[in-house]
Every structure is written in C-alpha cells, then in structure tokens.
Specification:
It is a single chain. Helix content is about 50%, strand content about 15%. By secondary structure, the chain is an alpha/beta fold. The strands form two sheets. Strands 1, 2, 3, 4, 5 and 11 form a six-stranded mixed β-sheet that branches. A six-stranded mixed β-sheet has the order 8-7-9-6-10-12. α2 runs antiparallel to α10 (about 260-290). The longest helix has about 35 residues, at about 260-290.
C-alpha cells in the first residue's frame, strides 16, 4: 500500500469519529434548548401580579437549570390586555394575566368578574374549585388556546370619583371607565351611569383630561396607578369579588418536554401562594396610603346598588349561564 493510501486509510476513521462526536454534541444542544416566555401585564412593577411573575421567572429558571426563562413586561408595554390575548393566540408572545375579558370568547368566563354575584371570598373559592371553575379552565384551553396555570384572587372592586357616591341615584350619568367586559357595561348602565370601555393604560390620562369622570378597580390597582392624583373619593361599592388567571399559550406549553411541563405547573403553584401572601400584606397598607394621599372613603348603600342592577345582569346572561347563576345562588342560601 502506498504511503498516500495509508494516509487516507488512517484519516477516514478519524473523520468518522469527529462527525460522530459533533452529532452527539448537536443532540445534546437540542435537548438543552432554552424556552423563552414573554409575559405582557397591564399592571406596573409595584403590583402583586408583576412581583409574582418576577418570582415565577426566577424560580422557573432555577428549577429548569436555565432551560426556561420568563421575560415580564409591565404597564402594557407589549400590548393592551385584549391585544395580549390575541398576540398569544398568534404565537407572538406567550403569557399574560386575564379573567372576565375572556367572556368575549366563551360565556362561562363572565363569572370571573360578575358584579354583585359573590357575597364573600369563601363563596368565590367554592365556585373556582367547583364544577364551573373546572369548566372555565377547560373551555379556556378549547376556545381561546390559553392555558390557565393558577389563579390570583383580587380585592373587591371600588368606584373612584370626584364627587361622593352613596346611592345609585347619585350616579346621574357619571361617565365611568370599565374594562371591555359586557357584564360591567350592563351593570353600570342599569345603575344609571354611562360606562365607557377603555384600555387600562389610557385611564389616568382620560381622568386627568375629563374624558371620563370615574373608574372602578381594587384598592391595590387604584393605588399603584396613581389615581389619587386625579380622583378624590373611593366609594366603597365592593361590587365585584373576582379572580384572574396567569395564562400561557397552549401551543407554547405543548412545545415543552414533559419534564419541563411538570416544572412549569409546579412552579406556577408556588407563584400562586407567593402572590397571595404579598397581596394580603399589601391590602391594608394601600388603603391607608390612599387616605394619606387625600382620598376620602365613602360608605355606600350596597343593597340599593345590588337591587337596582341584579336583574339586568341576570337577563344579560345566556340561558345556560342563567341556570348556573340561579343554581349557585340557591346553594348559597
């Protein structure tokens, strides 16, 4: 055999070994792919949702060994709430926090924020963990392509304004910003106000310029959004006891290997407990802070509010949801 042939003979297996090693290395890199989840939030960095998602991001990266990362964008930097849902559906982003807005896609989501439906948080938790709560989660995946990974309880929604509101008769065509949820429009219209659906990021400026005269949200969001600068009164209507879901696009979730899916959901349970803890710690603090900033708290005739709009809310529901409404109310009597 010539020396040239010998060189070729020796070289060929070396190339094979190198290609094999590169192939093995490439497989390893594929197995260690990094999955990035971009989360769009309507709230700012001071809110418990943002802090919970930041906690989730840290724990998820830690538990997955860096294979999963979450980027959290507050204050509707990426999109307004309804747009964020559509961007997830289009595969542009992966996560958000949402609730009754989903009633624009499927009917049962209306109960996430139905005015004057629950009397206390015990009733609400019973509902979330019961048959209808399970139905909401199932329909969310089927109808919207969003997967709920846990839930956050919200504080009661209160009405803020620049004149005191003690009774529905005091509303007198008051222009109130509401989220784009049909039940809210129905309730406030029945109460005599003029509800105006609007993205949350536009509310402060609209109050400042007088485009709207009032808005309604839980204490924490009233505080964190700085509404004390443009509103004088917190009218203690407590008209909605509600919850929201941190959600992930179902397609993005299904792209995860099974081990990472398990880590994702287990870490979400940690996030729920973490958010609840900081929410409760903050709830009383923000009420004091709002009063210190000059907002006056007004006691209202809650029964008068409920009585005036409850039938209109019930009538606005589809027949199937009316049956759910009536049955749940009977079980609580």
């Amino acid at each position: 055999m010539s020396s040239k042939g010998c060189q070729y003979y020796l070289f060929f297996p070396c190339v094979s070994v190198i290609l094999f090693l590169l192939s093995v290395s490439g497989c390893g890199q594929a197995e260690e792919a990094v999955y990035v989840f971009r989360a769009s939030l309507l709230v700012n960095e001071d809110h418990s949702w943002y802090k919970a998602l930041a906690f989730f991001a840290e724990r998820l990266e830690e538990e997955s060994g860096g294979r999963m990362k979450v980027e959290v964008y507050p204050s509707e930097q990426l999109a307004k709430e309804i747009e964020a849902i559509r961007l997830i559906q289009a595969g542009v982003i992966e996560m958000t926090v949402t609730g009754a807005l989903l009633s624009n896609w499927f009917e049962s989501a209306v109960f996430c924020e139905l005015p004057f439906f629950f009397t206390d948080s015990t009733e609400m938790l019973s509902f979330i963990r019961g048959d209808i709560g399970q139905r909401i989660e199932k329909e969310m995946i089927q109808r919207t392509g969003l997967r709920p990974i846990c839930f956050f309880q919200r504080g009661p929604r209160q009405l803020t304004s620049n004149r005191p509101i003690r009774h529905p008769d005091d509303l007198n065509d008051l222009i109130i910003r509401v989220p784009n949820v049909p039940a809210y429009v129905t309730a406030w219209s029945a109460l005599g106000a003029k509800p105006t659906p609007m993205a949350f990021s536009e509310v402060f400026t609209s109050l400042q310029h007088g485009t709207i005269e009032a808005q309604e949200n839980p204490f924490a969001l009233i505080h964190d959004a700085g509404f004390a600068e443009v509103q004088s009164y917190v009218n203690l209507t407590g008209h909605v006891l509600s919850w929201v879901y941190p959600v992930v696009g179902e397609e993005a979730f299904q792209e995860l290997p099974e081990d990472l899916q398990n880590i994702f959901l287990e870490t979400a349970e940690e996030m729920q407990a973490y958010e609840r803890k900081i929410f409760l710690a903050k709830e009383n603090i923000v009420q004091v802070a709002l009063q210190e900033k000059g907002m006056e708290f007004i006691e209202v005739d809650k029964e008068a509010f409920k009585k005036k709009c409850q039938q209109a809310i019930f009538n606005s529901l589809p027949l199937d949801m009316q049956r759910v409404y009536a049955e749940f109310q009977r079980t609580q009597e």
